[in-house]
Design goal:
Elements lengths: L1 E7 L5 H14 L9 E4 L7 H10 L2 E4 L2 H7 L8 H7 L4 H10 L4 E2 L4 E3 L2 E7 L5
Parallel strand pairs: 1-2, 2-3
Antiparallel strand pairs: 1-6, 4-6, 5-6
Helix pairs in contact: 1-2, 3-5
């Protein structure tokens, strides 16, 4: 399972999210694929564009609770004081991707910054 973790500034558009997912997948060496799941954190519950992107991609969007984001922190590749202040996670995109991918999940690359959106791609332990 491939997970795209999403972080963003407030009020981003769906095209911003879709562009970040495409850039993240490309950066992870999967340019022609669509992730199986999108994931984000509780501070992004109100960001309609993330959920609209999930609808357009015909993929589930999982909101990962803070305790699971925190549990993923030792596996992060990127840390940002701005992300920590805004979301409570040093890399919301990476933490959400890792948490959704499960305890054996791993990041395929550091998060990608695409304008106002960050995207991190993780693969679960199954390798599929």
């Amino acid at each position: 399972m491939i997970v795209a973790g999403i972080g963003s500034r407030r009020g981003v558009g769906v095209e911003d999210i879709l562009a970040a997912v495409a850039a993240g997948m490309g950066g992870a060496g999967l340019p022609d694929q669509v992730p199986d799941v999108l994931a984000t954190g509780p501070t992004k519950r109100g960001e309609a564009a993330i959920f609209e992107a999930g609808q357009r991609l015909q993929r589930e969007v999982r909101v990962i609770e803070a305790e699971f984001l925190h549990a993923a922190e030792p596996r992060l590749l990127t840390r940002s004081a701005a992300s920590q202040a805004a979301t409570g996670s040093p890399s919301l995109a990476e933490a959400a991707a890792l948490a959704a991918a499960g305890p054996a999940g791993r990041l395929l690359a550091p998060r990608t910054v695409c304008g106002p959106v960050t995207c991190a791609i993780a693969r679960d332990g199954s390798g599929q």
